[in-house]
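Budget justification aside, the reviewers requested a transparent look at the raw inputs and outputs of the sequence design task funded under Objective 1. We therefore reproduce one unedited record. The lines immediately below are the structure tokens for a 212-residue chain.
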């Protein structure tokens, strides 16, 4: 099965505010872009991914991510994360009605294509399925098969909300790179320990990160 991934990205100037203890205002936008670049590059390289759609209104991010092979869709609803994901999935399904679609976080700088393929392969067994983040509170990936509707419930405690919505939780070993999103300095240290992509490696080299 070949998947289309939908990746949402808010304007870089407003991204990653919880990294304020690690990166100043001047560095956070570049760091958020680097996370997205490494995420998109890994997704494009995944053997089970046919297309990567990024939903964003940020001109710089759109340009840089398109250069990596992503298709850019404007955030027409401008109604937050879940509205952006629903819009991106609708755009995909309007063109290819039975395409399996998965929402993927834009802040997975350690993402490995082979691990992403394992997660998507497991998701094929269900109409809707999701993968919890490393903290086991949120969600990094939500998948809807050809007959399924995405129905994203991202945000605080999204693991519980996706489970309550009827999505199957994927309990997989060896896919840490797909689970390790980055919201805080501690998350970034964990991603660096896993091994981040080249964009994040370059951006994080400008930071003083205790314990890294």
């Amino acid at each position: 099965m070949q998947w289309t991934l939908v990746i949402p990205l808010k304007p870089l100037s407003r991204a990653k505010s919880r990294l304020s203890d690690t990166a100043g205002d001047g560095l956070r936008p570049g760091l958020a872009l680097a996370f997205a670049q490494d995420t998109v590059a890994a997704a494009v390289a995944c053997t089970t991914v046919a297309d990567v759609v990024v939903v964003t209104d940020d001109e710089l991010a759109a340009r840089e991510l398109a250069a990596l092979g992503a298709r850019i869709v404007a955030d027409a609803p401008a109604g937050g994360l879940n509205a952006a994901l629903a819009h991106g999935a609708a755009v995909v399904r309007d063109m290819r009605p039975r395409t399996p679609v998965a929402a993927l976080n834009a802040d997975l700088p350690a993402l490995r294509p082979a691990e992403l393929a394992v997660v998507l392969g497991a998701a094929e067994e269900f109409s809707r399925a999701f993968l919890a983040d490393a903290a086991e509170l949120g969600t990094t990936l939500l998948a809807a098969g050809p007959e399924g509707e995405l129905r994203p419930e991202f945000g605080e405690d999204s693991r519980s909300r996706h489970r309550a919505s009827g999505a199957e939780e994927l309990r997989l070993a060896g896919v840490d790179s797909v689970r390790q999103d980055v919201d805080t300095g501690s998350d970034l240290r964990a991603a660096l320990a896993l091994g981040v992509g080249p964009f994040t490696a370059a951006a994080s080299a400008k930071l003083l990160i205790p314990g890294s």
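Residues 42 and 112 are 6 Å apart (CA to CA). The longest strand covers residues 49-55. Computational costs for records of this kind are itemized in the attached budget.
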